[in-house]
Amino acid sequence: MSTRLTTGTILAHDPEVLAATSAGLRAWVSSGACQSESGAFVAWFDLANGRRSYDYPEISGYALTYLAGQVSLSERERSAGQRAADWLTERVRTGKLAARDGWDNDAVYLFDIGMIAAGLLSFGRRTEVERYLETGRHLVSFLRDETRPTQSISPVARRGPQPERASWSSRGVPHLAKLVQAFLLADELADGTDKRVAARLIETIKRLQAADGRMGTDEDETPTMLHPHLYAAEGLWIWGSAAHDEDALERARMATEWAFTHQLEQGGLPRSVANGKQRGTAREQSDVTAQAVRLALALGLRSCAVDRALTRLIEVARGDERGLAIVYQPDSPDIHLNTWATLFAAQALATAVPDAEPISWKELV
Fold it and tell me: Where does the pLDDT of residue 279 fall: very low under 50, low under 70, confident under 90, or very high at 90 and above?
């Protein structure tokens, strides 16, 4: 074993390093660095010029899920969550469901709606704010109508403008498995209807998985994008954990193990895999690395490969007095401290600490 891997293994098993890095990532989430004056969480913070990117509804939903899952909330964290939840609630009230304002023809993506709904339902229950819960239920009702069994599943809402771009997010289906989290959270507040919708969705996704565990993330077989591939695995894990579906859990394991077969030399995972077969040579992407680690730990798949990936997350964390954040693409000249990669990594590293409580399907960002 090389010195690099030996060092990596030591770092990945150092509880103080894991806990301190996770705490630093958590601190950054509520520091204001990744949140705009509107209350929205942004996609990234540019370390070179100190500028924030665009307000991002989907990622604001993720931040709410993350904050709601903490054992205790500081006043700063509660305030950060309330500002984001108020912003999202007002957007929905005024009919603004687009992924981003003024982007991609203002198309409405079901995945984004699901992540916003899950965040509002989780944070609403945590803070006991009815308007957050009501807005979350309204969004789940929207998803229920869009995924009714009389029509094929589309990643883009049929009621509204259609996207101008073609990618996995506008054409692929497997990543929609993660919508089950919103359906299951709403189901706990209702009569069982949404659990049936979730079950039907998961059965559709199961049929899309290849024998080796790979998820075809677009209509075209090449390349396989690992970010949505792992979203599909996360949805399978959420459903498997909540519904005690062993087949779904096994499929999540297969998808996670397949992703790790494309681990890069430095320990991270690539953005994509050509043909679903060749070893990953695309640019390293830290959100994928964090997703893979988090799922592996949730599924009890800790290994040397997982430890290498954990160490890589520690290596690509950057910060200042506000905390730590994860660089989106470590080999890019742009040092973008990415909000969702930071949220994923915070959960992954916290879960890796010895004797840590396992993550719940309700808490998964």
Answer: low
Cα-Cα-Cα-Cα dihedral sign, residues 27, 32, 38, 44: negative
Residue 300 tokens read as 């009890």
Q: Which long-range contacts (CB under 8 A, 24 or more apart) does 261-264 make?
A: 262/226, 263/305, 263/308, 263/309
Residue 360's CB: how many other CB atoms inside 10 A?
12
Q: What letter represents residue 342's amino acid?
A: T
The H-or-E segment that residue 225 falls in is strand 224-225
289-342 pLDDT tens trace: 999 999 999 999 999 999 999 999 999 999 989 999 999 999 999 999 999 999
Instruction: Decide: helix, strand or coil at residue 325.
Output: strand
**Closest-CA residue to 365 (of 118, 27, 42, 162):** 118
Q: What is the 3-state secondary structure (H, E, C) of 326-352?
A: EECCCCCCCCEEEHHHHHHHHHHHHHH
Q: Are 8 and 308 in contact (CB under 8 A)?
A: yes
Q: How many CB atoms lie within 10 A of CB 282?
A: 18
Alpha carbon distance 73, 325 (integer Å): 19
Distance CA 129, CA 121 (A): 10
Q: How far is CA 32 from CA 21, 81, 120, 242, in A?
A: 18, 11, 20, 34
Question: Which range among 164-173, 209-218, 297-306 shows the weakest confidence by mean pLDDT?
Answer: 164-173
pTM for the whole structure: 0.94
Q: Tell me which H or E stretch contains 55.
A: none
Among 63, 57, 132, residue whose Cα is nearest residue 97: 57
Distances (CA, A) of 168 to 52, 118, 187, 215: 26, 22, 28, 11
Cis peptide before 223 (omega within 30 of 0): yes
